[in-house]
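worker-3 :: picked Tyrosine-type recombinase/integrase
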Amino acid sequence: MKLIDKLKEDHIGNIYTNEEIDKILEENKYFPIECDEDNEEGIFKYTNTKSQIWVKYIRENEDYLISDITFCTKKKGKTKVRAFRTVEEIKSMMDYFRDKKKYDEFLIFVLGLFFARRIGDTLTLKWSDLYYENGRKKEILNTLLEDKTDKIIDIAITDVAWKYIDWYCDAANINPMEHINEDIFRCKQKDELPQNYTDEEYGKAIEKQEAAYRYQFQSAAKYNGIEGVSTHSTRKSFGRIAHEINKFDPDCLPTLQTVLGHADLETTKIYIDIMAEKAEKMFNDVGKYISDIDSGIVPAIDNVPVIALKTNDLRDILKQAYLMGRENISKENDIEIMNQLLSMVDEKRLS
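worker-3 :: tokens ->
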């Protein structure tokens, strides 16, 4: 039985949480597509990088009734949403919102970079998520329930994040203590909600606010000549920047998986485009190999394994090699010394 037929037989008409649907697809090596620009209401999208599966649903509060499951090819003209590629792109977006006094949009943008949350979740933030009732600033944001995953992720509110939050309060002339139980980002739709509004009514207001921010975001991107980005690019940028800074830390990807709230490490790798870059390098390597053959050059293949060491461990090993070299001027013990040093490397190597 084909995969799509089996998924339909097993799951159409059943009710699941979003996390349960993610798990079902991930068991079949399909992972969530997290892209605000391409998301249609009532559809979850998954990919294995070669094809997409779309899960159509009917939502009832936090539960989803599966109405259809289909294979789908990517629409023509659509491009994959990417992270910001350069520091200049990020700076130009910040300057656009700041210079045009679009203070809400500015803070939404930078909090997307600092907190790595989806735009809809950022728009639900309240001042009480950042401050205690006595006015003291929080160091950890642990009250935000993510709409997509129903998870609460511990988010560090760093000194740098507070720098921009404080700037926003000054620029927008807002005293958070006067609005402690209110949403940080107001909008007409929220203000017009009835006093005892339902979760569904609030969700619709968020969707309209999100659409308004998306328009402002795309206006800023167009003004700065930046293509291929969406409101989701700040979250993707957090992942890219975090990985670039910490890629030699063996715990980098598992930590990033936790921060982003992904159910699977493979999702994180695909999400920050690690696998796409490795695949591109593989194509380039094979291409160069064939080109060298055609040019009469004997292709060189370097299969020497890379061994990762902490800087301090490498320094200790080099120091030991230096001392052992001084103590053994003759070459009689060269092999024994080399074996001792290799044993030290093997003990210290990072898995």
